[in-house]
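Researcher: Next sequence.
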Amino acid sequence: MNTAQYNHLFSFIWNIANDVLVHAFEKGEYKKIIMPMMVLRRLDILLEPTKDAVLERKKQLDAAHIVNQEPILFQTTGYPFCNTSRFTMRKLKAEVDPVRLKMNFIDYLNGYSKDVQDIIDKFRLRQQVDNLTEAERLGSIIDKFTDSSINLSIKPVLDDKGKEILPALDNHMMGTLFEELLRKFNEENNVTEAGEHFTPRDYVHLLADLAVIPVADKLEDSTYSIYDGACGTGGILTISEAEIKRLAKERGRKININIFGQELQPETYATCKADLMISGERKSFDYILNGTSRQYIAFGSTISEDGHKGETYDFCISNPPFGTPWKEDLKKWGLAESEKKKISDPRFKFVYDDDPEFNVIPGIGDPQMLFLANNISRMKDGTKMGTRIVEVHNGSSLFTGDAGGGESNLRRYIIENDMLEAIIAMPEKDFYNTGIGTYIWIVTNRKEARRRGKVQLIDATSIKTPLRKNLGEKNCETDANDRKKILELLMNFEENEYSKIFPNEEFGYWEVELFKPAKDENGNVIKDRKGKVKLAKVKGEVEQIPFLYPGGVEGFYDNEVKPYEPEEVFGEPTIGYELSFTKYFYKPIKLRSIEAISSDIRDIEASTEGLLNEILGL
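Model: Next structure:
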């Protein structure tokens, strides 16, 4: 990334708020104006060269009474969007009368094609035009975004001799710019919702590498699909797409890539859609499946409003939200919080082990395991490469939930079906708005032969590069060298200080409750009418028995319980699964010697000698 270009653009756009919006709007409103105007200008600037040609072409189409004009006009613009108003943002800035400027700007917005109208609506831009007009700031902000000293286009600005004056702003830098501006706006307005964060681009590159490079030699002349059910501004999708294309080209493969995503936040969705449109690589954002029109980037909650129902993909790469309740999704299904087991969506109904009660629905306070279940439902069975899932989680996904509960059952389903390839522990403070550690799950239904029946755990918490300046909570990054180290640990599949390999059974256990004969107040054993001893649960007594314990449940009872509490018996075992990085990678801190501590105390006493007398004036 061109750091000088990025810093200049960031400073310029950030300062627009202080130059134009200050005193006229609350700080919380700044991002609602700046972000959509930035996106709109990126679209607008690409249409300037073909403006006259589009208007002439539209005039011809109107005369010929052709209704479906957009596909034809797209051929003129060279992009999957157009604007048929007589205005551009540069032309709008010439109007000085506020009333006429508002009318012209609304006419300009109305001139955009269907997909851009969707973007405008998600940003609620027409409402912002009203607000800017009332505050007499509309002309000023248009003037700022059309300033000749900045370039928001994907094409460079050249002088008359073809020399570059201003570099292009590519989609990856735009994504970083958008996310950093939004982070700063939230920070300035004290918005710090738990779990609300974006995926830094260095981290995104790692996800793409982990998804694609290990299977690069399996790429064929074919079409591949990438899916992200929490796609944000689309960085994971576009970076992964570029990585697959690069690797395929190196290997002489001819491939096509289709990307699919879904996003809940309207502003983020709008930015993602705009950037994909701007790239010019896609001629349409609609596709037909089984006679139904769908969009490659769907809007809404992936959990309750599946925008890609029944579809499967080659790569599922996501950083889903975590630590945020999903109560609203239950409401959309018409269910109360106590009725989550009634969810009938087939993505979350796993048939397993002939158990009609088997469910993978997690607690209502955290949706991340639902996103993982959603991705598992997207796996392809009938292809050579199958599906590769690379997904970011926090630590709770490793152990949250009781045996037989939704989280534990999902871990069980993944591990017992031998789909868990690896989990990578990442450094803390690797994200903008959260200091917690994260874990990358790698799940596939096409494990290599050497990995079958095994799970690799990688401790990459120390593999990081410090930032010269913190970005919110983020104080480190995973640079190219760091990514290479992590990728080598994964692909070498060897045990060392950072990598441990275990059989699948290592993470399973039986959970059993303990019972004792029920007794009356005199200490006599109570029996039923048939003479059978009644049992009473031992309060608070539950045993977790590892699958790998010699002799299993019976062996554990004989060795660990019976010798000490011969009256106690086990109830029916329940299967659970959990993982613990601390257990396998814990490094005890060496305690200081008594001599060293004593020496420090003596030094402190010496340095403070006479201080008390001085304070008391003695």
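Model: Residues 507-585 form one domain. The chain has three domains: 3-169, 201-493, 507-585.
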